[in-house]
Design a protein that fits this description.
82 strands; 1469 residues; alpha+beta; 6-stranded mixed β-sheet
Length: 1469
């Protein structure tokens, strides 16, 4: 008996099989969760109508009253034929589009219609735009919604089956897809419960709601839960909750053999132990099954009950009253008897029936004599049959063998021998015979452990009787082997196919034995009776383990365009002996410059065509992987697999451990392009590279080009004409200025040449799109004729081609470069602007605002690129803040004078306790045409904050400007290493390419920028630059120009001018001599280069022009008419001498010539501009042909060389760049010069030499003096109270006498003192006089040392030192003299010049190929030093070490005695 147990924690065996049944618990169903990606796709859902792809609806969110909001509706022809369609505008006045016109779309082309939404009320709007085609109509919905509350969750949840008084759970996501913070509250009917019942969700967030189902009755539950949400919970949404409550049900059946009275297939609920002897024990097994399939717990209850059956005995009596010789009644009957008993097995009962029908009118008695045939049993054996009735006899016999037996039964009727009827029957035994396929052997192929292999096996009943069978598998083998059906009935001569399943549990070979027992279908014998026949089946199989490997462990797909698709085949190999069922798993790792938390939510960018499958033994499978990266990052997909083992012994291990299979890597990339160099020509050739870099904001442009494009920028992945407006809409948030500067009217175009480089890894297509390149060509009648001023300005700029780009588009392979020429023509006075879209196909698009300024010829104009200038941040407390530079560019043709008004600067100084925060060093100056002036500023912050000042800059006879200067002061102790403001220029701002040249340029510099970095004050830095002449036929003449006057003082260029022959190069040495003040250096050196032959022609023509001009200034014309006649009359009387004189006179310029005179010299002035450019050029050509114009100089090319550096005071340099100090040469003569000037200045002021520290203290305030006094007092008091300091002083006084003191004697002290005395002399060598540069204080200190040595010497004054000591003193004197010389500034300068010239010569020779710096050094052994004449190794000033000259590279050691004692010279070839 089973009892129901209360619910509790499930036991460890709750999921195991009980008997031969199993209990399985179903996992709760997961509700459908709409992912964010699906939600986004739902908003952007597109449909296709008769070959036209269009968005099904346009939505406006977050709109405001009184404004216009534009969205673009894109139509795309996805059909192979041209599509023609028309449209009707929206019906309401709130949605506006362009005037309806026929639309023709070629295959693959797209068209964008702007839809403008103009709300007037704060409500929701809905309209549609209808499109008509020959095939039909379709419409696009237009909706404008207000911010609202909206929750998203499934419409229904189906919970798992649950037992009564039990509970089951499920969960679903609750997402806030609205625009507002939403409060929610659930109302849930019983027996369901939702957790949490209430809460608050931010826009875009979600929470998981758990549903609990706890039924009290076995019913089908279908209820509705209501979610109230909103500000006041006035909105609601429902969800259906479905579940079924079930009563638990357990069935108990008896295991073992069939009983006598139990038919096969019947369910038995009685456990029969049979006859059990007293004291014996009999075991029987029962099977407990849970068909309620729900989980149920049970317990067994034993009850003792004894049953006593009742007994009943029936006695039959028979007799008659006939006398002995009297004839009995004659029976009238019909006897129907069979001839053969049915076939049965040996010793098995077989039955037949016999019918006796009394057809007479008198009863019939019968008696069956069993003594004549004891092998047949008859029931009933006697009795009577009433008239018209019948009697059925049941005959049974039990054949003992397979032989045929004859049975004759004697039936006596009416108890009279004459009325005896014989009944003849035959019977035979039929044995059990079952035929097993394969001679009783069943083979299974090798099978993976934990999986199953199924085979069909046939058994055949070879008898005429149906028989039952039952397979018996050993208890230990039941987990490995199973058969279906395991029991059943086989009809006579029937072949039954059975399904065998082999499930190995370990890696081994299996030899299993199973038995099948067969018996007669209606037998009554026990299970162990001999009537059962058992056959043995041998099952042979093997459990194996296998692994899967990939043919390629790593598959690198390289660089894939973001948004593109690329597929590859992954070949999986199974080299094992068993088939493997696999499950593939993909793990995505995204690395690169990204937020790790953000990319974790990215969907998998790799998809497999299938994730589950089976690989047969020694076979392969192909899995196709499709990769579509969504970001410009590095993707790594680790593909692993698990072997599916659903038949594992432990259900928890139904899936094996994940094992690595292969790795697929790819990099999502966008096409990338950058600007690597820039140069200018034409009117802009005077602009330096660095200034150009700022005018065109190239650093910002490159930074934006490196970033990933926004989704809006990818609306059109390739250049497309997508707008019908003159000013097409843009989809990029980036707007940059391309400022061409300024130039006078009719000047040469300002030309800027950019070097574009594909710095990516995939080919890139780029294009500069003017507004006309993005506009769809429409018919004239459809164009809008009303234009605003901005549109008219852009049309004028485009029609006159004021801006041009050549080439406008191109394609670059990775690493390839291309020059792009941008130009601005100065045909109209004013500022020209044009928005140009830089479009990188499948990448970024950036709107470039082309700006160019044209001024009048006589106008004084300074081109201000910005109204704000930010100084480099400076640390507070800096003793010498550096000078910084602000540039003024003169874009006109006249020199301009500027003046900076410093009233606001003085106000800032007053606000900061008279501290000069901003100081302008040159507030007045002049800027030449086309040149740049440097205004020097000093920014000295007092606090760690941002300072700002508005400074007016006045231009004489020109426009003034108000510039905001801003500086940041920071505390280095707080910011620490994060304050990286010492870098002079970033690499992106410093173009390093020297290949970019303007058209016609034949000479170029080896580098365009010299960045000296951080240098100390008074340092001298030199760099070597080569000027190369690429022409093979003409020489070039060069001349260096320094832009500003102060730059010429600190920069030196050698040579400043010269000639470079064809195909050769020359070197130029650029030397920067840092001043004593810390400052920023940013100098633009200009090398003007002109061809030699055109220059010679120009000079010759100029000389002729100037000579003719001089002649015309003194020339006059004789107007007498008869002068020629008188001359002719007197001509015959002239002598030859006179004629020759006349010829000379004729050559005089004062005589009228009969030949044609030269045209008058006149400088060409530009006439008033005519209507057209062609007429203007015609008039100028006509005027030029009439006048002899002054020769124009040949066109020269300007090569810009930027020199940048930042000098630091010595204290700042030592604190920040201490390790860099040995790399610099400090000019001490400059320090002394500056020091002498300071001393002289102090002498001039006070007449007395005063220490600088004292001067500072004297000029300090009373509060500052008090602070210094307090600090010194605290320090001195601390030293007086410090015992360790006292002990250190005592130890220093008590130190023992040094070792070298024993070599010092009184005589030497006396001699030394006499040598150093002013009037003393020495026989060895007189001591040198003090250097003029030495300070008097140092001389006094040396004198005091000498006197102290004489006083402390223990020797007598009259003793003389020995000769050995005299030699020692002489060598010491020579050493001191050498040290004194090496300390002289002149010696240091000389040594620096020698080293500098040596290195420069080596570099020049290396550039010419005269020396190879990378060649291996070689060693040359010289003769012994003793063999060299006139040179002694011990000669002073010629040490042997100087004979060894070390070349570049390591010196080679020599081996052997041949080179011992020989000087060696290391040479390099």
């Amino acid at each position: 008996m089973l009892a129901q147990m209360p619910r509790g924690l499930p036991s460890a065996d709750s999921g195991r099989r009980l008997g031969c049944s199993s209990i399985r618990q179903e996992e709760p169903m997961s509700p459908l969760r709409p992912p964010e990606r699906s939600a986004r796709k739902a908003k952007e859902k597109k449909g296709t109508f008769w070959g036209t792809e269009v968005t099904e609806a346009l939505h406006w969110h977050g709109w405001e009253l009184g404004k216009e909001f534009t969205k673009h509706l894109s139509l795309k022809n996805v059909h192979v034929k041209t599509q023609k369609l028309s449209y009707r505008p929206p019906a309401t006045r709130f949605f506006i589009t362009v005037f309806p016109q026929p639309i023709v779309l070629s295959p693959g082309m797209s068209l964008t219609l702007p839809i403008i939404f103009r709300p007037l009320e704060k409500k929701e709007y809905e309209d549609s735009i209808c499109f008509e085609k020959p095939e039909g109509e379709f419409s696009v919905a237009l909706r404008a919604t207000l911010p609202r509350h909206k929750l998203l969750f499934p419409d229904a949840i189906q919970l798992p089956l649950c037992a009564v008084h039990d509970f089951s759970e499920a969960s679903f996501p609750l997402c806030n897809v609205g625009d507002l913070i939403t409060l929610f509250n659930w109302e849930t009917p019983s027996p369901f419960h939702l957790t949490p019942v209430s809460g608050m969700l931010e826009p875009g967030s979600e929470c998981v709601v758990k549903v609990t189902f706890q039924p009290q009755m076995a019913l089908v539950y279908d209820v509705i839960a209501v979610c109230w949400f909103g500000d006041n919970e006035e909105q609601k949404r429902t969800i259906k909750l479905r579940a079924i409550g079930k009563y638990p049900h357990l069935l108990v059946s008896v295991l073992g053999e069939l009983g006598e009275d139990v038919e096969p297939g019947d369910f038995r609920d009685v456990l029969c132990f049979g006859s059990v002897a007293v004291g014996a024990t009999v075991e029987r097994h029962v099977e407990i099954c849970n068909p309620s399939m729900v989980l149920r717990h049970y317990s067994n209850i034993e009850e003792d009950s004894t049953m006593c059956p009742s007994w009943c005995l029936t006695i039959r009596l028979r007799g008659h009253t006939f006398e002995a010789d009297r004839q009995h009644f004659i029976p009238h009957y019909v006897l129907d008897s069979p001839k053969v008993f049915p076939a049965v097995g040996p010793n098995t009962n077989t039955y037949r029936s016999v019918l006796l029908w009394n057809v007479g009118t008198s009863p019939i008695t019968f008696c069956m004599n069993q003594d004549t045939c004891p092998s047949v049993l008859v029931k009933p054996c006697s009795g009577y049959v009433a008239p018209g009735a019948h009697q059925i006899f049941l005959l049974s016999t039990q054949p003992a063998d397979m032989a045929t037996h004859q049975h004759i039964l004697s039936l006596q009727l009416n108890s009279y021998p004459k009325y005896t009827q014989e009944i003849s029957l035959r019977s035979s035994g039929e044995s059990l015979l079952l035929l097993l396929e394969g001679d009783g052997n069943l083979y299974f192929k090798p099978t993976c452990v934990g999986t199953s292999t199924t085979r069909t096996y046939t058994i055949k009943n070879c008898t005429r009787l149906p028989m039952q069978f039952k397979w018996k598998i050993q208890e230990s083998d039941r987990k490995v082997l199973s058969v279906k059906p395991a029991t059943g009935v086989i009809q006579p001569n029937e072949a039954l196919a059975q399904t065998w399943t082999f499930t190995p549990g370990e890696e081994t070979k299996y030899l299993l034995r199973s038995w099948v027992s067969v018996w007669r279908a209606h037998g009554s014998s026990g299970p162990e009776s001999p009537e059962r026949t058992r056959y043995t089946l041998r099952v042979i199989g093997e459990g194996a383990l296998g692994t899967i490997r990939a043919q390629e462990e790593q598959r690198d797909l390289g660089n894939i365009l973001v948004g593109g698709l690329q597929s590859c085949d992954l070949v999986l190999l199974n080299n094992g002996i068993c088939s493997l069922n696999y499950i593939l798993h993909v793990e995505q790792i995204i690395t690169g410059p990204c937020d790790p938390e953000e990319v974790l939510s990215d969907p998998l960018a790799l998809e497999l065509d299938h994730y589950k499958g089976m690989i047969p033994a020694r076979s392969k499978a192909i899995v196709q992987a499709t990769v579509s990266p969504a970001r410009q990052l590095h993707y790594t997909w680790s593909i692993s697999y698990t072997i599916s083992t659903p038949k594992a012994l432990d259900p928890a291990n139904a899936v094996g451990e994940q094992q690595a299979l292969c790795c697929v890597v790819a990099t999502g990339v966008y096409p990338s392009v950058c600007v690597t160099d820039v140069c200018a020509a034409g009117s802009a050739r005077g602009i330096s590279k660095l200034h150009l870099w700022r005018l065109f904001t190239l650093e910002t442009l490159n930074q934006y080009l490196e970033r990933d494009p926004t989704s809006a920028e990818l609306t059109y992945r390739v250049p497309t004409r997508h707008s019908v407006c003159p000013v097409p809409p843009v989809h990029t948030p980036v707007l940059l200025d391309f400022n061409f500067g300024a130039a006078p009217i009719e000047a040469e175009p300002s030309v800027v040449i950019l070097m574009l480089e594909n710095n990516g890894v995939v080919p890139v297509e780029w294009a500069f799109l003017f507004p006309s390149d993005q506009k769809i060509d429409v018919e004239h009648w459809a164009e809008n004729t009303e234009f605003n001023p901005s549109e008219l300005h852009q049309m004028r700029v485009q029609d006159n081609q004021l801006f041009s780009v050549s080439p406008k588009s191109g394609r670059l392979f990775p690493g390839q470069e291309q020059t792009v020429l941008l130009s601005h023509r100065h045909d109209f006075i004013g500022t020209d602007r044009l928005p140009v879209l830089l479009k990188v196909s499948h990448g970024r698009e950036i709107l470039l605002n082309f700006i160019g300024v044209t001024v009048e010829r006589e106008q004084r104009y300074v081109h201000f690129t910005s109204t704000k200038h930010v100084f480099t941040p400076i640390a507070i407390g800096s003793s010498s803040p550096p000078k910084q530079i602000y540039e003024l560019y003169n874009g006109g043709s006249m020199a301009v004078a500027y003046e900076i008004q410093l009233d606001s600067v003085m106000k800032i100084q007053e606000e900061n306790f008279q501290h000069p925060v901003f100081v302008c060093l040159n507030p007045r100056g002049e800027t030449l045409p086309g040149m740049t002036s440097h205004i020097e500023w000093v920014f000295s912050p007092l606090e760690a904050r941002t300072y700002s000042v508005d400074v007016p800059i006045h231009i004489l006879e020109g426009d003034s400007a108000l510039i905001t200067f801003q500086g940041i002061g920071y505390d280095p102790h707080i910011m620490g290493e994060t304050a990286q403001f010492d870098q002079v220029l970033s690499p992106s701002v410093t173009p390093g390419s020297s290949k970019l040249t303007v058209p016609g340029q034949t000479a170029f510099l080896s580098q365009h920028r010299i960045c000296l970095g951080n240098i100390p004050v008074y340092s001298k830095s030199s760099r070597l630059v080569f000027l190369n002449n690429a022409s093979e036929s003409e020489a070039v003449i060069f001349a260096w120009h320094v832009g500003t006057s102060n730059a010429s003082e600190m920069l030196q260029i050698v040579p400043e001018m010269g000639v470079v022959q064809p195909g050769e190069s020359t070197h130029c040495i650029i030397t920067l001599q840092a001043s004593g003040n810390a400052c920023f250096y940013n100098v633009d050196l200009v090398c003007e280069v002109v061809m030699q032959q055109p220059l010679a022609k120009y000079e010759k023509a100029l000389q002729e022009w100037e000579a003719e001009k001089q002649r015309q200034t003194v020339e006059f014309t004789i107007t007498e008419q008869d002068l020629g006649a008188e001359t002719n009359l007197k001509q015959p009387a002239r002598s030859s001498a006179d004629s020759s004189a006349e010829e000379k006179l004729a050559k005089s310029p004062a005589v009228t010539r009969q030949c044609k005179t030269l045209p008058p010299i006149k400088n060409l002035l530009a006439p008033n501009p005519p209507v057209s450019r062609s007429q203007r050029r015609h008039l100028m050509d006509k005027e030029a042909s009439r006048l002899w114009a002054k020769p124009e100089p040949p066109k020269s090319h300007l090569l810009h060389l930027g020199v940048t550096a930042r000098s630091h005071s010595m204290d700042d340099f030592l604190s920040n760049f201490c390790s860099e100090l040995p790399k610099f040469f400090l000019c001490r003569h400059l320090q002394e010069t500056v020091g002498d000037k300071a001393v002289d200045k102090r002498k001039d002021e006070g007449g007395v030499r005063t220490d600088p520290v004292l001067l500072v203290l004297a000029g300090s305030s009373e509060q500052e003096m008090q602070v210094v006094t307090d600090l010194l007092t605290a320090v001195i008091r601390g030293l007086l109270e410090d015992t360790q300091f006292h002990q250190a002083v005592s130890r220093s006084l008590a130190e023992p006498m040094p070792y070298f003191h024993q070599f010092w004697t009184a005589e030497s002290a006396k001699h030394q003192g006499r040598k150093r005395s002013p009037g003393g002399s020495s026989r060895a060598s007189p001591s040198p006089a003090p250097c003029a540069k030495d300070k008097p204080g140092e001389e006094e200190e040396r004198q005091e040392e000498c006197e102290m040595s004489l006083v402390t010497s223990p020797m007598a004054a009259g003793e003389e030192p020995p000769d050995s000591l005299r030699d020692i003193l002489h060598q010491e004197q020579l050493r001191e003299e050498k040290e004194t010389i090496t300390r002289l500034p002149a010696f240091g300068n000389l040594l620096e010049l020698v080293l500098e010239n040596t290195l420069q010569n080596i570099m020049v020779e290396a550039s010419r190929g005269e020396v190879v710096l990378t060649a291996r050094p070689r060693v040359i052994a010289l003769p012994p030093s003793s063999a060299q004449r006139g040179i002694s190794p011990a000669t002073p000033g010629h040490p042997a070490s100087l004979l060894r000259t070390a070349g570049p590279g390591p010196s080679l050691p020599t081996e052997g005695k041949e080179t011992e004692g020989y000087p060696q010279i290391v040479l390099s070839t």
